[in-house]
Amino acid sequence: MSDLLRVRGLTVRYPGRRPWPWSPHRPVDAVTGVDLDLEKGRTLGLVGESGSGKSTLGRAVLRLLRPSGGTIRVGEFDVTGFGLRVPLEYRRAVQVVWQDPFGSLHPVRTVGSTLAEPLRIHFGLDGRELRDRVGELLERVGLDADMADRRAHEFSGGQRQRVAIARALAVRPRLLILDEPVSALDVSTQSQVIALLREIQRDTGTAYLFIAHDLAVVRHVSHRIAVMRRGRVVETGPSDRVCDEPAHPYTRALIEAVPEPEPARQRARRAARRTARGTATSGTPETADTPDTSDTES
Ligand SMILES: Nc1ncnc2c1ncn2[C@@H]1O[C@H](COP(=O)(O)OP(=O)(O)OP(=O)(O)O)[C@@H](O)[C@H]1O
Questions:
Q1: Alpha-carbon distance 185 to 161, whole Å?
Q2: What domains can be seen in the chain, in order of their start residue?
Q3: What is the pLDDT of residues 82-96, one digit of tens each?
Q4: How far apart are CA 14 and CA 76, in angstroms?
Q5: Ligand 1 atom showing the smallest separation from residue 12 Cα
Q6: Nearest by Cα to 72 from 147, 156, 124, 4
Q7: Nearest C-alpha neighbor of 228 from the set 241, 242, 217
Q8: What are the tens digits of pLDDT across the range 250-263?
Q9: Atom 29 (ligand 1): residue with closest C-alpha?
Q10: Cα–Cα distance between 179 and 176 in angstroms, integer?
């Protein structure tokens, strides 16, 4: 299968702030030399601690900022080749759902008008057809069609995130950037929203770039995982391989940081740690062999 998203050597440098008016800017290298691939209908999870550059990478793909170097392609779009105006077709092809379901929806507008706007702009719908499509979108994300008259503040956090997903789906994107989409939700709402996202992917073939700091959540939703640290991708591979046999010490540290509630799994994890220590002292290199198509960087 060919790649929908192809990122090569991506670099983003922010100009940074001046500590004092007379001192020079201190640039921040937020993303450095990143390569990523994502196929149609698949999910690539992007994990790493706060400040590792995940959101910056997502914003570069959305073309909300202009990268300092490298290339981004999404299908036929040469994203890094765009001038000042980003084509409307690209805005339709790539959509985003942000972390904050409270801040990302207009507080005063009805949810119906929030969903109607992209349908009007991108497909020229109006009248009955527009109302029907808004109702369909609400039902698609598990809400009632007659909720269209309500305003965002009348919804719970989970319901708002469903509305945000419906708004993103309205234009039938090929790629959806999900930037910490469940981090602000409680655990049971998280799993409902994740189940919804998986169902939508199965039905529509939309590819997801799923950005999160929580490796347990990312593992659950992703086919492949890329681990970011200080702006670089240090390890990439199929989700199970990255989580069960992490090749990079930083990935191992991230996995260690995930709380494990089940005693049997806690014991298995301790045993794996002991084995890893044993092999490390018997001369095995720190970065293990990766039998699949994974890449690691130290
Ligand atoms: N607009 C900006 N100007 C200057 N530096 C920035 C800007 N936005 C982000 N940074 C810096 O770039 C680096 C990467 O930030 P980014 O938000 O991409 O990380 P992240 O992994 O998404 O973190 P988080 O999970 O906390 O959002 C950080 O050092 C951050 O301080």
A1: 9
A2: 3-296 (3.40.50.300)
A3: 998 999 999 999 999
A4: 28
A5: 12
A6: 4
A7: 242
A8: 999 998 887 766 66
A9: 51
A10: 9
